[in-house]
């Protein structure tokens, strides 16, 4: 019951040495500056960074949550700015059971770019990766360029979960990560990988 194994990461395969019954690898993708690193920071640490250079150096974070009395550790990988150079490696995707594809509701072009990220997630992650579409920066309602309805229908069409979040206020951030985890948990508990 140790999911999301990756050769570059600890495998936690020894149950006695490790209190987690499940380990899920999550990845975050999406265009630059949509708020990926801040979603991670908010979920893991309940913090927000107004600094746009925050991305540099961030690689991953983890937090454990409780699902049906099981301790589930979410190990969340961040692009660390690699998306700027379109140089995300296949190792980044490999073994991911959850993926957050993030756009910025105030920048239409980040929504237009979703299809490419979706293709890569489906191609390089685990075959049954659970993907959640995340429209971030919903605190900036006055600058909105992508409606909830449009994004929601995109999500339906492609079989994705969908949340609008704010990494700044924390709105819906826990929900986006935790709902995904519950679905992965349900999917894998009777069918270990
Ligand atoms: P990344 O490149 O996708 O990792 O994006 P960052 O997390 O570095 O965020 C890019 C910029 O957007 C930073 O200046 C953040 O402070 C800002 N930002 C991120 N999330 C939000 C949000 O939910 N609301 C607002 N108002 N700003 C945000
Ligand atoms: Mg970043």
UniProtKB/TrEMBL annotation:
A Gene Ontology molecular function term of the record: GTP binding
NCBIfam families xref list: small_GTP
Organism: Cavenderia fasciculata
Keyword GTP-binding: yes
The organism's place on the tree of life at top rank: Eukaryota
Keyword GTP-binding: yes
Name recorded for this polypeptide: Rab GTPase
Source lineage: Eukaryota, Amoebozoa, Evosea, Eumycetozoa, Dictyostelia
UniProt record similarity statement: Belongs to the small GTPase superfamily. Rab family.
Protein keywords: GTP-binding, Nucleotide-binding
């Amino acid at each position: 019951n140790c999911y999301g194994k990756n050769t570059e990461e600890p495998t936690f395969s020894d149950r006695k040495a490790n209190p987690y019954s499940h380990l899920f690898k999550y990845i975050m993708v999406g265009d630059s500056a949509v708020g990926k690193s801040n979603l991670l920071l908010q979920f893991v640490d309940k913090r927000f960074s107004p600094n746009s250079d925050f991305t540099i150096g961030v690689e991953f974070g983890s937090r454990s949550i409780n699902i049906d009395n099981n301790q589930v550790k979410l190990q969340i990988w961040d692009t660390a700015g690699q998306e700027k150079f379109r140089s995300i490696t296949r190792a980044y995707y490999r073994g991911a059971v959850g993926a957050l594809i993030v756009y910025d509701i105030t920048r239409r072009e980040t929504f237009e770019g979703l299809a490419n990220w979706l293709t890569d997630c489906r191609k390089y992650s685990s075959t049954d990766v659970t993907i959640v579409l995340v429209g971030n920066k919903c605190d900036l309602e006055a600058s909105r360029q992508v409606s909830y309805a449009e994004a929601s229908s995109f999500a339906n069409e492609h079989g994705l979960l969908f949340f609008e979040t704010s990494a700044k206020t924390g709105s819906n951030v826990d929900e986006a990560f935790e709902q995904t985890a519950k679905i992965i948990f349900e999917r894998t508990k009777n069918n270990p990988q």
